[in-house]
Specification:
Elements: E1 6-8, H1 10-39, H2 48-72, E2 74-76, E3 92-96, E4 103-108, E5 119-121, H3 125-130, E6 138-143, E7 146-155
Parallel strand pairs: 1-2, 4-5
Antiparallel strand pairs: 3-4, 3-7, 6-7
Length: 156
């Protein structure tokens, strides 16, 4: 069975590498200090500060493993072989539904998706529906809310 790959831009990979470095150095050290201080309060069975610090430690360790896995299986997007007007992971696409305002998103791998920053996952219904289509095409996209027809008006 092959491992899942995580498509991402070079920028996204660098962001994950910085997060991993922060978690391993600063965040771990901060949590260890909090645990030591909480232990000094005595009885650990009723020590909420100790429990909170241990919970945070477990969360951080889980995130470290998750980020390491994504980095170990990262697939850096190279759009050199894709037509300039074709929608693909790593590109920014602007589309419009009927007379609505145009929407612009960069299509990225799930690891770096952030809708509030205008980055949507290649696994999302909208991105999956747009990938492979070209500038000027009208595309029917199956979404949880029903089918939406959009026209691709720009690809960068």
């Amino acid at each position: 069975m092959s491992e899942k790959t995580f498509p991402m831009t070079l920028e996204g990979k660098e962001k994950l590498e910085k997060e991993l470095e922060y978690l391993k150095t600063e965040k771990r050290a901060e949590i260890i200090k909090r645990i030591q201080i909480a232990r000094s309060f005595g009885d650990l069975s009723e020590n909420s500060e100790y429990e909170a610090a241990k919970d945070e430690q477990a969360f951080v360790e889980g995130r470290v493993k998750e980020v390491e896995n994504m980095l170990n299986h990262a697939e850096i997007i190279d759009n050199g072989a894709i037509d300039a007007d074709e929608v693909a992971v790593g590109k920014t696409v602007t589309f419009q539904e009927d007379d609505d305002e145009p929407e612009t998103y960069q299509i990225v791998g799930a690891a770096e998706a952030d809708a509030f920053a205008g980055k949507i996952s290649n696994e999302s219904p909208i991105a999956a529906g747009l990938i492979g289509h070209k500038l000027g095409e009208t595309v029917a996209i199956e979404t949880p809310g029903g089918v939406m027809e959009v026209k691709i008006i720009d690809v960068k």
